[in-house]
Design goal:
The protein is built from 13 helices and 23 strands. With 426 residues, it is of the alpha+beta class. Strands 3, 7, 8, 9, 10, 11, 12, 13 and 16 form a nine-stranded mixed sheet that branches. Helix 1 crosses helix 9, helix 2 packs antiparallel against helix 6 and helix 2 crosses helix 9. The chain binds adenosine-5'-triphosphate and magnesium ion. The site of adenosine-5'-triphosphate has 17 residues, from strand 8, strand 13, strand 16 and helix 9.
Length: 426
């Protein structure tokens, strides 16, 4: 892609409204623009990152045996009345009427719609377990939308719902999803913790959250420094415990000392049990030919929130430092004098074509600007590798390789292998 042809409005300074680093950098790097409170347009650069995360999630969900569907965003009131959530959800549920004055809402989550689908189409225990997912826009009329796409009103979520014959089978699917989520976060390259959590308005028996550790996290979590013990302090507050009494104290599981950290919730997995299935009469015939209530699990990942969370964990004073797996481009060819010097433009064009033919995602900075502006933009956008074709190329036939992490080296333009080794190792 040519830099001069993309809608990539980078900014020197972040607008006043941006409080946290990810929001500032997403605006400055031209990834998103606000349309209304908590509602954003994703520009080409931002969308590339969003799609990468979405694809990692999709690949791992498919690998787990889950099946993808796409449910509607607009949902009828009648389904929500069956679980009493039309009343319970309160103002977070955005309600609307069609021309016939029928009530609908914009889906903040899809338990009702999926349970309706399954009760009408799955009849026998032999069809279980089944795990259905979608990657779709959600709407929640949050009290305090903030931090850009981190807490939006409209956001992209992967939600999945499993239907199981009994508790043991639900536990099995739950563990499979737990492992899938671990793989997703490891592939993205994030430092995270799995935390015992409150089930909130979704309800159910047991739940765990996946938190990306970052100072700007809205949740406070208590973590043992030498075991897997981790709990959202929300859960302790609900039980009337006192968080301060935990700080620096021995971990309740007997291993290590408790540390209090901030986390960004990027995923949440629940064992719902029979709550929705009972309300909505979702049954299958069991081995004995009798109607038996389904056991349900639900599993969410905040796809758009993950973009912001990844930036919170990977940035420096120059901008974003993308983990390789989700960078919008692998390589930026910075061609200085592209518009006026044929030696430069020919060399840049041919390297660009070669790297693309090898499967790399490359942007070519063909703008009239000088080295300073181009490098600043590239560092802001966090492209892992820059290849500079400029004065040194004309004089010595040399190009410069500069990793976003700082390391640099000079190279022969024809030596693509060394260029790519340099890229892979940074
Ligand atoms: P939170 O406590 O942050 O409001 P939640 O418990 O309401 O989250 P879930 O209902 O479990 O969230 O939704 C699944 C995932 O969707 C969350 O783990 C989070 O990553 C993402 N998510 C939830 N609300 C938002 C939002 N307002 N903006 C962006 N992502 C969100
Ligand atoms: Mg919420």
């Amino acid at each position: 892609m040519l830099f001069s042809k993309i809608l990539l409005p980078t900014l020197k300074d972040a607008p006043q409204e941006a409080e946290v680093i990810s929001h500032k950098l997403m605006l400055r790097a031209g990834m998103v623009r606000k349309v209304a409170s908590g509602i954003y347009t994703w520009l080409p650069l931002g969308l590339r990152v969003l799609r990468k995360i979405e694809n990692i999630v999709r690949e791992e969900m498919d690998a787990s045996g889950a099946q993808e569907v796409l449910m509607p965003m607009v949902q009828p009131k009648e389904l929500w009345q069956e679980t009493n959530r039309w009343e319970k959800m309160g103002p977070e549920l955005l309600r609307l009427q069609d021309r016939h004055e029928r009530d609908f809402c914009l889906g903040p989550t899809h338990e009702e719609v999926i349970t309706d689908l399954i009760r009408n189409n799955v009849k026998s225990y032999k069809e279980l377990p089944i795990n259905i997912y979608q990657i779709q826009t959600k709407f929640r009329d949050e009290v305090r939308p903030r931090y850009g796409v981190m807490r939006g009103r409209e956001f992209l979520m992967k939600d999945s719902y499993s239907f199981n014959a009994d508790e043991a089978c639900l536990e099995e699917t739950y563990q499979k999803m737990r492992n899938t989520y671990k793989t997703v976060l490891e592939r993205i390259g994030l430092d995270y913790k799995i935390v015992s959590a409150d089930s909130g308005s979704i309800g159910g028996d047991a739940s765990e959250e996946f938190h990306v550790l970052a100072e700007t996290g809205e949740d406070t979590i208590a973590i043992s420094d030498s075991s897997e013990f981790a709990i959202n302090t929300e859960l302790l507050l609900k039980d009337g415990e006192d968080i301060s009494s935990l700080e620096g104290k021995p971990s309740p599981d007997g291993n290590g000392t408790i540390q209090i950290k901030k986390g960004i919730e990027v995923g949440h997995i629940f064992q719902l049990g029979k709550v929705y299935a009972e309300d909505m009469k979702a049954n299958v015939l069991n081995k004995e030919g009798k109607a038996s209530t389904l056991h349900m699990g639900c599993y969410g990942i905040g796809v758009s929130r993950l973009v912001a969370a990844a930036i919170e964990q990977n940035n420096d004073d120059k901008g974003i430092v993308w983990p390789h797996g989700i960078a919008p481009f692998d390589i930026n060819i910075i061609a200085i004098g592209y518009e006026k010097d044929q030696i430069i433009s020919e060399a840049a064009d041919s390297l660009y074509a070669e790297l693309i033919s090898m499967g790399y995602e490359v942007i070519l900075d063909d703008r009239k600007d000088g080295y300073g502006t181009k490098m600043k933009d590239s560092e802001l956008m966090g492209i892992p590798l820059n290849i500079i074709i400029g004065k040194q190329f004309i004089e010595n036939n040399e190009i410069e390789l500069k990793a976003r992490t700082g390391e640099s080296s000079s190279n022969d333009i024809g030596d693509t292998k060394t260029i790519l080794d340099f890229f892979k190792n940074k």
